[in-house]
Batch of 2 targets.
Target 1
Amino acid sequence: MTSIAQNLRTVRQKLSHTAEISQRKADEITLLAVSKTQTAEALKEAYLEGQRHFGENYLQESLDKIEQLSELDIIWHFIGPIQSNKTRPIAEHFAWAHSVDRLKIAQRLSAQRPTDIAPLNICIQVNIGDEPNKSGCSVEELPKLAHEITKLPNIRLRGLMAIPPATQDPKAQSKAFANLRNSLKELQKEQPELDTLSMGMSADMDTAIAQGSTMVRIGTAIFGQRHYSAK
Ligand SMILES: *Cc1c(COP(=O)(O)O)cnc(C)c1O
């Protein structure tokens, strides 16, 4: 077995185990394999081990891989910062975008989404720690943005995404994730169809699951260290 296949099994076991001790069902939690900087071959190894959801951050790199792996039934998620002049390929080639943080981006994605395919699934990225210079809409702006996005025809708001402030303190981590969960709960009062909390990475997956994550974004624990040299 390859190391990627082995890592994937380990991550899945950990996910199931954490779900169980958090009294949740493992099948409520989607494992998103974050494959930025990894080769198409590496993605294929994970695919052959049953992985279907892949997350990418860099547009050109991801388009190359989408083309190389077009025979495979992969569900592609865009999770990197979205510039407004780069929305079209995201609208055309991805099933999900997790990093929408302003109305203009959502409007462009909706306008550019081909109407012969399913609506693009959207998460609003929230700057949960109110950190300066960090992407994400503020908790205060969130209700209005969510309301506006819901009116757009070719995208479907699914929930929220966050990258919490860097900390080793599990209590602070828990609190950040709980804030995101509570923000979703507030929105669900008006929009009960929202079902996604995209939170948790390799280092904090357990805490995120305990706090209600429905989608964990895992890179390093599956693929190993990233190779930035090719960029
Ligand atoms: C890179 C990245 C991840 C994965 O991080 P790991 O620590 O490698 O698991 C998750 N989410 C986003 C938004 C990322 O950019």
Target 2
Amino acid sequence: MNHTIADNLEKIRAAINVASADSLLSKQRVALIAVSKVQPDEKIDAALKAGQRVFGENRVQEAYTHWETRRANYPDVELHLIGPLQTNKAKEAIGLFDVIQTLDREKLANRLAVLYGESTRKPALYVQMNVGQEPQKAGIAPAEAAEFVRWAREDKQLPVTGLMCIPPADADPAPHFAWLAQQQQRLGLAHLSMGMSADYEVAICFGATHVRVGTAVFGGRGL
Ligand SMILES: *Cc1c(COP(=O)(O)O)cnc(C)c1O
């Protein structure tokens, strides 16, 4: 199994290189975020052993279980929060993550602004956009994108450096990736987190700087 994860990582890294070499929009190295949520310890250790250092988790509590000790052993690990953040978990999230990709509402921005004022750790923030305008999904509405980012950066002094999206499950993701890339350019943000196991190559074609890949690295989550 350890062997499989090293192989998977190698294949995905090769596919990322091909996609970014082919893309007219991909101007920089694309970071592979290995999404380790719900994966057993042995698989996470195999990925570390294979040289993977950037990981994504979608729950704060689980991330501590996976990473509090491992982090001490691998100080160059970079952790991204890619799941919804409750305001009462924000302080814990700041204590562990390097990037919080799910700034998705005003209330959370207000809470983070207070905590960042008191903390020496200030994780970079990506704003999550509800690109498909799905009522059940988190994120800022497309029409409010520019004003929310301006408000968070200027009025709240938050280090917003990127955008993130999860397109609707049953639709072609390409138009959503294209729209998000356009917003990133317009707003002058460095990072663009989009693309998962099924569509990370498409996302790279549209200029993703970070792809979030779970099952293609680790196999199914047994759900
Ligand atoms: C789980 C998850 C991923 C990884 O999905 P896969 O299809 O397993 O690659 C990516 N992004 C987010 C926000 C997730 O929750």
